[in-house]
Amino acid sequence: MSNSDHAPDKPPALPRQEPPQRSGCLTALMAISGVILLLPGLCALLFGGLSISDRSQIGSDIAPLIFLGLAVGAGGVGLIWAAIRRRRS
């Protein structure tokens, strides 16, 4: 005999698993490290701005240091963003 008028049973839905919670201490450490990494970016903006205002261009001797400082500062922003975003979810 066939059960053509009865739909097949769906498997039971698995309970949604929450990702493991990160400790507040790690979040604070990430945020503090991010703020510390913002300082080289701030210095790069300062020295880059001073270099441009003096000579209307960035000197070739200071340009790599400015770009390195900006990259480290961007890493600090990313670290702060990751700490705040993970903490809220």
How would you characterize the overall build of this protein?
- With about 90 residues, the protein is mainly α.
- The protein is built from two helices and no strands.
- The protein has helices spanning about 25-55, 65-89.
- Helix 1 (about 25-55) packs antiparallel against helix 2.
- The longest helix is centred in the middle third of the chain and has 32 residues, at about 25-55.
- The two termini are about 50 Å apart.
Structural class from helices and strands? mainly alpha
Could you give a short account of the major beta sheet?
none
Query: H/E series, N to C?
Result: HH
The N- to C-terminal Cα distance equals: 51 Å
| Average pLDDT taken over every residue | 82
Question: How many beta strands in the DSSP annotation?
Answer: 0
- Beta content comes to under 5%
- The unreliable regions are none
Helix content: 55-70%
Number of helices: 2
Rough outline: elongated
* Cα Rg: 26 Å
